Amino acid sequence: MAITGESHSQFHVLAVDDSIIDRKLIERLLKTSSYQVTAVDSGSKALKFLGLHEEDDHSNPDRVPSVSPNDHQEVEVNLIITDYCMPGMTGYDLLKKVKESSSLRNIPVVIMSSENVPARITRCLEEGAEEFFLKPVRLADLKRLKPHMMKTKIKNEKLGDQEKLEKPEIQSEQQQQPPSQPQPEPQPQPQPQQSPLLQQPNNNKRKTMEEGLSPDRTRRRYNGGITTMV
Amino acid sequence: MASTPLRQQLSIMRQSLFDEGLLDHEQVSYLETLENEDDPDFIENVFTLFLRDSTRYIDSIEKALETSPVDYPIMERMMYRLKGSSASIGASKINGEISTLRKQFRDGDMESGKASLQKLKAEHANFKEKLVVYVGMLKQAKLSEY
Protein backbone atom coordinates (compact mmCIF):
# COMPACT_ATOMS: atom_id res chain seq x y z
CA MET A 1 0.00 0.00 0.00
CA ALA A 2 1.62 3.19 -1.14
CA ILE A 3 1.82 5.80 1.55
CA THR A 4 1.08 9.15 0.02
CA GLY A 5 2.51 12.30 1.49
CA GLU A 6 3.33 11.98 5.14
CA SER A 7 3.11 8.59 6.75
CA HIS A 8 0.37 8.11 9.29
CA SER A 9 1.90 4.91 10.56
CA GLN A 10 2.86 6.62 13.78
CA PHE A 11 -0.84 7.15 14.53
CA HIS A 12 -2.61 4.38 16.30
CA VAL A 13 -6.38 4.21 16.28
CA LEU A 14 -8.48 2.07 18.58
CA ALA A 15 -11.69 1.05 16.82
CA VAL A 16 -14.62 -0.25 18.84
CA ASP A 17 -17.66 -1.90 17.26
CA ASP A 18 -19.65 -4.97 18.18
CA SER A 19 -20.53 -5.68 14.56
CA ILE A 20 -17.83 -7.72 12.91
CA ILE A 21 -18.65 -6.41 9.46
CA ASP A 22 -18.41 -2.82 10.59
CA ARG A 23 -15.24 -3.62 12.47
CA LYS A 24 -13.70 -5.04 9.32
CA LEU A 25 -14.84 -2.05 7.38
CA ILE A 26 -13.48 0.55 9.75
CA GLU A 27 -10.26 -1.38 10.05
CA ARG A 28 -9.89 -1.43 6.29
CA LEU A 29 -10.67 2.27 6.06
CA LEU A 30 -8.14 3.15 8.71
CA LYS A 31 -5.44 0.96 7.23
CA THR A 32 -6.10 2.42 3.81
CA SER A 33 -5.48 5.78 5.41
CA SER A 34 -2.20 4.35 6.73
CA TYR A 35 -3.11 4.32 10.38
CA GLN A 36 -2.25 1.53 12.72
CA VAL A 37 -5.41 -0.09 13.97
CA THR A 38 -6.50 -2.16 16.89
CA ALA A 39 -10.12 -3.25 16.64
CA VAL A 40 -12.09 -4.56 19.61
CA ASP A 41 -15.70 -5.61 19.93
CA SER A 42 -16.72 -3.94 23.17
CA GLY A 43 -16.24 -0.89 25.34
CA SER A 44 -14.88 -2.94 28.19
CA LYS A 45 -12.25 -4.50 25.95
CA ALA A 46 -11.38 -1.02 24.76
CA LEU A 47 -10.84 0.14 28.32
CA LYS A 48 -8.73 -2.89 29.04
CA PHE A 49 -6.62 -2.16 26.02
CA LEU A 50 -6.22 1.41 27.15
CA GLY A 51 -4.98 0.16 30.46
CA LEU A 52 -7.95 1.39 32.42
CA HIS A 53 -9.87 -1.09 34.45
CA GLU A 54 -13.51 -0.38 35.14
CA GLU A 55 -13.95 1.38 38.44
CA ASP A 56 -17.23 -0.31 39.19
CA ASP A 57 -15.53 -3.51 40.09
CA HIS A 58 -17.57 -4.40 43.13
CA SER A 59 -15.51 -7.42 43.94
CA ASN A 60 -12.59 -5.21 44.83
CA PRO A 61 -13.65 -1.84 46.22
CA ASP A 62 -10.06 -0.93 47.01
CA ARG A 63 -8.96 -1.27 43.44
CA VAL A 64 -7.59 1.87 41.86
CA PRO A 65 -7.16 2.49 38.15
CA SER A 66 -3.97 0.85 37.11
CA VAL A 67 -2.77 3.74 35.01
CA SER A 68 -1.30 6.95 36.39
CA PRO A 69 -0.29 9.87 34.20
CA ASN A 70 3.33 8.96 33.88
CA ASP A 71 2.85 5.25 33.98
CA HIS A 72 3.65 3.29 30.92
CA GLN A 73 0.33 3.09 29.09
CA GLU A 74 0.05 -0.28 27.50
CA VAL A 75 0.04 1.12 23.99
CA GLU A 76 -0.13 4.70 22.84
CA VAL A 77 -3.51 5.37 21.29
CA ASN A 78 -3.98 8.56 19.34
CA LEU A 79 -7.68 8.29 18.69
CA ILE A 80 -10.64 6.17 19.68
CA ILE A 81 -13.40 5.61 17.16
CA THR A 82 -16.40 3.83 18.55
CA ASP A 83 -19.86 2.75 17.55
CA TYR A 84 -22.60 4.33 19.60
CA CYS A 85 -25.00 1.42 19.96
CA MET A 86 -23.29 -1.50 21.61
CA PRO A 87 -24.61 -3.94 24.18
CA GLY A 88 -23.33 -3.44 27.71
CA MET A 89 -21.18 -0.35 27.49
CA THR A 90 -22.39 1.98 24.76
CA GLY A 91 -20.05 4.23 22.82
CA TYR A 92 -21.38 7.09 24.90
CA ASP A 93 -20.52 5.25 28.13
CA LEU A 94 -17.05 4.61 26.79
CA LEU A 95 -16.67 8.25 25.84
CA LYS A 96 -17.63 9.28 29.34
CA LYS A 97 -15.21 6.89 30.95
CA VAL A 98 -12.39 8.09 28.74
CA LYS A 99 -13.12 11.73 29.43
CA GLU A 100 -13.40 11.08 33.16
CA SER A 101 -10.00 9.41 33.25
CA SER A 102 -7.08 11.69 33.97
CA SER A 103 -4.78 9.53 31.93
CA LEU A 104 -7.03 9.03 28.94
CA ARG A 105 -9.07 12.20 28.66
CA ASN A 106 -6.85 13.76 26.05
CA ILE A 107 -7.36 10.97 23.60
CA PRO A 108 -9.78 12.27 20.98
CA VAL A 109 -12.93 10.20 20.69
CA VAL A 110 -15.10 9.89 17.61
CA ILE A 111 -18.55 8.32 17.69
CA MET A 112 -20.14 6.42 14.80
CA SER A 113 -23.77 5.58 14.44
CA SER A 114 -26.02 4.23 11.74
CA GLU A 115 -28.84 6.32 13.13
CA ASN A 116 -29.21 10.02 12.65
CA VAL A 117 -30.53 11.13 16.03
CA PRO A 118 -29.80 14.81 16.66
CA ALA A 119 -30.19 14.51 20.43
CA ARG A 120 -27.70 11.68 20.44
CA ILE A 121 -25.22 13.64 18.36
CA THR A 122 -25.50 16.66 20.62
CA ARG A 123 -25.11 14.55 23.72
CA CYS A 124 -21.91 13.00 22.44
CA LEU A 125 -20.39 16.25 21.32
CA GLU A 126 -21.23 17.84 24.65
CA GLU A 127 -19.58 14.97 26.44
CA GLY A 128 -16.39 15.67 24.53
CA ALA A 129 -16.55 13.65 21.32
CA GLU A 130 -14.61 15.35 18.57
CA GLU A 131 -16.74 14.11 15.71
CA PHE A 132 -19.88 12.14 15.07
CA PHE A 133 -19.86 10.05 11.91
CA LEU A 134 -22.89 8.54 10.31
CA LYS A 135 -22.45 5.03 9.04
CA PRO A 136 -21.42 3.71 6.65
CA VAL A 137 -18.29 5.69 7.30
CA ARG A 138 -16.37 6.95 4.31
CA LEU A 139 -12.69 7.54 3.65
CA ALA A 140 -13.48 11.23 3.34
CA ASP A 141 -14.78 11.15 6.92
CA LEU A 142 -11.47 9.81 8.12
CA LYS A 143 -9.68 12.82 6.71
CA ARG A 144 -11.24 14.77 9.56
CA LEU A 145 -9.42 12.64 12.09
CA LYS A 146 -5.92 13.81 11.44
CA PRO A 147 -6.17 17.27 13.00
CA HIS A 148 -7.41 15.71 16.23
CA MET A 149 -4.59 13.21 16.32
CA MET A 150 -2.01 15.81 15.41
CA LYS A 151 -3.01 17.92 18.38
CA THR A 152 -2.27 15.12 20.81
CA LYS A 153 0.95 14.21 19.03
CA ILE A 154 2.28 17.75 19.24
CA LYS A 155 1.21 18.01 22.83
CA ASN A 156 2.83 14.71 23.73
CA GLU A 157 6.05 15.67 22.02
CA LYS A 158 6.11 19.01 23.81
CA LEU A 159 5.49 17.24 27.08
CA GLY A 160 8.20 14.75 26.27
CA ASP A 161 10.65 17.61 25.93
CA GLN A 162 9.42 19.29 29.05
CA GLU A 163 9.71 16.17 31.11
CA LYS A 164 13.42 16.30 30.64
CA LEU A 165 13.50 19.72 32.23
CA GLU A 166 10.70 19.76 34.76
CA LYS A 167 9.33 17.64 37.53
CA PRO A 168 6.92 14.88 36.50
CA GLU A 169 4.03 16.00 38.77
CA ILE A 170 3.50 19.15 36.74
CA GLN A 171 2.75 17.20 33.55
CA SER A 172 -0.73 16.04 34.48
CA GLU A 173 -1.90 19.61 35.04
CA GLN A 174 -0.44 20.78 31.80
CA GLN A 175 -2.25 18.07 29.95
CA GLN A 176 -5.60 19.50 30.90
CA GLN A 177 -7.41 21.39 28.29
CA PRO A 178 -11.05 22.22 27.67
CA PRO A 179 -12.95 19.44 25.93
CA SER A 180 -14.27 21.54 23.09
CA GLN A 181 -11.65 22.47 20.61
CA PRO A 182 -12.05 24.97 17.82
CA GLN A 183 -12.57 22.90 14.76
CA PRO A 184 -10.24 23.54 11.83
CA GLU A 185 -13.15 23.56 9.42
CA PRO A 186 -12.37 24.91 5.99
CA GLN A 187 -16.02 25.09 4.99
CA PRO A 188 -19.40 25.58 6.62
CA GLN A 189 -21.71 22.66 7.20
CA PRO A 190 -25.17 23.35 5.86
CA GLN A 191 -28.12 21.22 6.85
CA PRO A 192 -29.47 18.44 4.69
CA GLN A 193 -32.68 19.68 3.14
CA GLN A 194 -34.79 16.64 3.80
CA SER A 195 -34.10 16.30 7.48
CA PRO A 196 -35.67 19.20 9.36
CA LEU A 197 -34.87 17.40 12.61
CA LEU A 198 -31.18 17.84 12.07
CA GLN A 199 -30.61 21.17 13.74
CA GLN A 200 -27.13 22.51 14.03
CA PRO A 201 -25.90 22.33 17.62
CA ASN A 202 -23.98 25.24 19.09
CA ASN A 203 -20.66 23.98 17.93
CA ASN A 204 -19.89 23.11 14.36
CA LYS A 205 -18.08 19.90 15.05
CA ARG A 206 -20.84 17.59 14.00
CA LYS A 207 -20.39 16.10 10.64
CA THR A 208 -23.62 16.21 8.73
CA MET A 209 -22.37 15.74 5.25
CA GLU A 210 -19.43 16.73 3.19
CA GLU A 211 -20.95 19.53 1.21
CA GLY A 212 -18.97 20.09 -1.94
CA LEU A 213 -16.80 17.06 -1.40
CA SER A 214 -19.13 14.17 -2.03
CA PRO A 215 -22.34 15.30 -3.61
CA ASP A 216 -23.05 11.75 -4.76
CA ARG A 217 -22.92 10.59 -1.23
CA THR A 218 -25.21 13.33 -0.11
CA ARG A 219 -27.69 12.31 -2.75
CA ARG A 220 -27.41 8.71 -1.75
CA ARG A 221 -28.12 9.41 1.84
CA TYR A 222 -31.01 11.73 1.58
CA ASN A 223 -32.64 11.22 -1.77
CA GLY A 224 -33.54 7.60 -1.67
CA GLY A 225 -31.64 4.66 -3.00
CA ILE A 226 -30.40 2.70 -0.09
CA THR A 227 -32.10 3.74 3.10
CA THR A 228 -29.20 3.64 5.42
CA MET A 229 -30.65 6.04 7.88
CA VAL A 230 -34.00 5.91 9.56
CA MET B 1 -7.09 -7.01 -14.79
CA ALA B 2 -7.37 -9.02 -17.95
CA SER B 3 -10.84 -9.49 -19.30
CA THR B 4 -11.00 -13.24 -19.18
CA PRO B 5 -14.29 -15.08 -19.69
CA LEU B 6 -14.51 -15.52 -15.92
CA ARG B 7 -14.00 -11.83 -15.35
CA GLN B 8 -16.60 -11.03 -17.96
CA GLN B 9 -19.11 -13.33 -16.32
CA LEU B 10 -18.30 -11.73 -13.01
CA SER B 11 -18.86 -8.30 -14.43
CA ILE B 12 -22.20 -9.32 -15.88
CA MET B 13 -23.34 -10.82 -12.62
CA ARG B 14 -22.20 -7.79 -10.68
CA GLN B 15 -24.20 -5.54 -12.96
CA SER B 16 -27.30 -7.67 -12.67
CA LEU B 17 -27.08 -7.53 -8.88
CA PHE B 18 -27.11 -3.76 -9.21
CA ASP B 19 -29.90 -3.77 -11.79
CA GLU B 20 -32.08 -5.98 -9.60
CA GLY B 21 -31.61 -3.56 -6.73
CA LEU B 22 -30.02 -6.26 -4.60
CA LEU B 23 -26.76 -4.41 -4.21
CA ASP B 24 -26.12 -0.70 -4.11
CA HIS B 25 -23.70 0.25 -6.86
CA GLU B 26 -22.14 3.10 -4.98
CA GLN B 27 -21.52 1.23 -1.76
CA VAL B 28 -20.11 -1.82 -3.52
CA SER B 29 -17.85 0.25 -5.75
CA TYR B 30 -16.68 1.98 -2.64
CA LEU B 31 -15.88 -1.31 -0.92
CA GLU B 32 -14.02 -2.41 -4.02
CA THR B 33 -11.76 0.61 -3.82
CA LEU B 34 -10.76 -0.45 -0.33
CA GLU B 35 -9.50 -3.82 -1.51
CA ASN B 36 -5.80 -3.90 -2.26
CA GLU B 37 -2.66 -6.02 -1.85
CA ASP B 38 -2.84 -5.63 1.92
CA ASP B 39 -6.29 -7.18 2.03
CA PRO B 40 -6.95 -8.77 -1.36
CA ASP B 41 -9.99 -10.74 -0.18
CA PHE B 42 -11.73 -7.93 1.61
CA ILE B 43 -14.91 -7.96 -0.47
CA GLU B 44 -15.33 -11.73 -0.38
CA ASN B 45 -14.74 -11.68 3.34
CA VAL B 46 -17.32 -9.04 4.16
CA PHE B 47 -19.85 -10.61 1.83
CA THR B 48 -19.25 -14.00 3.43
CA LEU B 49 -19.59 -12.50 6.88
CA PHE B 50 -22.86 -10.97 5.83
CA LEU B 51 -24.13 -14.26 4.51
CA ARG B 52 -23.39 -15.82 7.84
CA ASP B 53 -24.56 -13.06 10.13
CA SER B 54 -27.69 -12.06 8.24
CA THR B 55 -29.00 -15.61 8.48
CA ARG B 56 -28.38 -15.63 12.21
CA TYR B 57 -30.06 -12.31 12.70
CA ILE B 58 -33.17 -13.33 10.80
CA ASP B 59 -33.38 -16.61 12.67
CA SER B 60 -33.09 -14.73 15.95
CA ILE B 61 -35.81 -12.32 14.97
CA GLU B 62 -38.09 -15.18 14.13
CA LYS B 63 -37.36 -17.00 17.37
CA ALA B 64 -37.86 -13.87 19.40
CA LEU B 65 -41.26 -13.40 17.78
CA GLU B 66 -42.24 -16.93 18.60
CA THR B 67 -41.41 -16.74 22.27
CA SER B 68 -44.14 -15.93 24.68
CA PRO B 69 -44.02 -13.11 25.59
CA VAL B 70 -42.30 -11.76 22.52
CA ASP B 71 -38.66 -10.92 23.21
CA TYR B 72 -38.69 -7.35 21.94
CA PRO B 73 -35.20 -6.35 23.11
CA ILE B 74 -33.63 -9.20 21.19
CA MET B 75 -35.74 -8.45 18.15
CA GLU B 76 -34.76 -4.81 18.25
CA ARG B 77 -31.10 -5.63 18.59
CA MET B 78 -31.14 -8.16 15.76
CA MET B 79 -33.05 -5.84 13.47
CA TYR B 80 -30.65 -3.06 14.28
CA ARG B 81 -27.67 -5.23 13.49
CA LEU B 82 -29.15 -6.48 10.26
CA LYS B 83 -29.96 -2.96 9.22
CA GLY B 84 -26.42 -1.85 9.97
CA SER B 85 -24.61 -4.67 8.26
CA SER B 86 -26.84 -4.61 5.20
CA ALA B 87 -26.10 -0.91 4.83
CA SER B 88 -22.39 -1.55 5.22
CA ILE B 89 -22.22 -4.01 2.37
CA GLY B 90 -24.78 -2.28 0.17
CA ALA B 91 -27.55 -4.88 0.43
CA SER B 92 -30.22 -2.36 -0.48
CA LYS B 93 -33.30 -4.54 -0.70
CA ILE B 94 -32.62 -6.20 2.60
CA ASN B 95 -31.88 -2.86 4.16
CA GLY B 96 -35.18 -1.50 2.88
CA GLU B 97 -37.15 -4.51 4.09
CA ILE B 98 -35.65 -4.40 7.54
CA SER B 99 -36.39 -0.69 7.89
CA THR B 100 -40.05 -1.38 7.05
CA LEU B 101 -40.14 -4.29 9.45
CA ARG B 102 -38.60 -2.30 12.22
CA LYS B 103 -41.08 0.50 11.87
CA GLN B 104 -44.02 -1.85 11.86
CA PHE B 105 -42.95 -3.58 15.04
CA ARG B 106 -42.15 -0.30 16.68
CA ASP B 107 -45.61 0.94 15.80
CA GLY B 108 -47.04 -2.20 17.35
CA ASP B 109 -48.39 -3.47 14.06
CA MET B 110 -47.67 -7.15 14.62
CA GLU B 111 -49.74 -8.35 11.69
CA SER B 112 -47.87 -6.28 9.15
CA GLY B 113 -44.62 -6.98 10.94
CA LYS B 114 -45.03 -10.70 10.64
CA ALA B 115 -45.98 -10.42 6.99
CA SER B 116 -42.94 -8.24 6.37
CA LEU B 117 -40.74 -10.76 8.12
CA GLN B 118 -41.85 -13.42 5.70
CA LYS B 119 -41.13 -11.08 2.83
CA LEU B 120 -37.71 -10.36 4.29
CA LYS B 121 -36.98 -14.05 4.56
CA ALA B 122 -37.86 -14.57 0.93
CA GLU B 123 -35.74 -11.61 -0.17
CA HIS B 124 -32.92 -12.82 1.96
CA ALA B 125 -33.05 -16.33 0.55
CA ASN B 126 -32.97 -14.93 -2.97
CA PHE B 127 -30.12 -12.58 -2.14
CA LYS B 128 -28.09 -15.27 -0.45
CA GLU B 129 -28.40 -17.57 -3.41
CA LYS B 130 -27.07 -14.96 -5.76
CA LEU B 131 -24.41 -13.61 -3.44
CA VAL B 132 -23.07 -17.10 -2.83
CA VAL B 133 -22.66 -17.52 -6.56
CA TYR B 134 -21.04 -14.10 -6.89
CA VAL B 135 -18.56 -14.70 -4.09
CA GLY B 136 -17.72 -18.08 -5.58
CA MET B 137 -17.07 -16.49 -8.94
CA LEU B 138 -14.93 -13.81 -7.34
CA LYS B 139 -12.76 -16.43 -5.70
CA GLN B 140 -12.57 -18.49 -8.84
CA ALA B 141 -11.55 -15.53 -10.96
CA LYS B 142 -8.80 -14.62 -8.51
CA LEU B 143 -7.49 -18.15 -8.21
CA SER B 144 -7.39 -18.60 -11.94
CA GLU B 145 -5.20 -15.52 -12.17
CA TYR B 146 -2.57 -16.72 -9.69
UniProtKB/TrEMBL annotation, chain A:
SUPFAM superfamilies: CheY-like. The modification 4-aspartylphosphate is found at D83. CDD domains: REC_typeA_ARR. The keyword Signal does not apply. Residues 154-170, 207-217 have a biased composition (Basic and acidic residues). It comes from Salix koriyanagi. Residues 151-230 are annotated as: Disordered. One of its GO terms (biological process) is cytokinin-activated signaling pathway. Residues 179-193 have a biased composition (Pro residues). Transmembrane segments: none annotated. Belongs to the ARR family. Type-A subfamily. Residues 12-150 form the Response regulatory domain. PROSITE patterns: RESPONSE_REGULATORY. Functions as a response regulator involved in His-to-Asp phosphorelay signal transduction system. Phosphorylation of the Asp residue in the receiver domain activates the ability of the protein to promote the transcription of target genes. Type-A response regulators seem to act as negative regulators of the cytokinin signaling. This is TWO-COMPONENT RESPONSE REGULATOR ARR9-LIKE. Keywords: Cytokinin signaling pathway, Phosphoprotein, Transcription, Transcription regulation, Two-component regulatory system.
Automatic annotation (TrEMBL), chain B:
GO terms for cellular component: cytosol; nucleus. GO terms for molecular function: histidine phosphotransfer kinase activity; protein histidine kinase binding. The keyword Hydrolase does not apply. GO terms for biological process: cytokinin-activated signaling pathway; phosphorelay signal transduction system. It is found in: Cytoplasm, Cytosol; Nucleus. Residues 39-134 form the HPt domain. Histidine-containing phosphotransfer domain (HPt) contains an active histidine that mediates the phosphotransfer. This is Histidine-containing phosphotransfer protein. The lineage of its organism: Eukaryota, Viridiplantae, Streptophyta, Embryophyta, Tracheophyta.
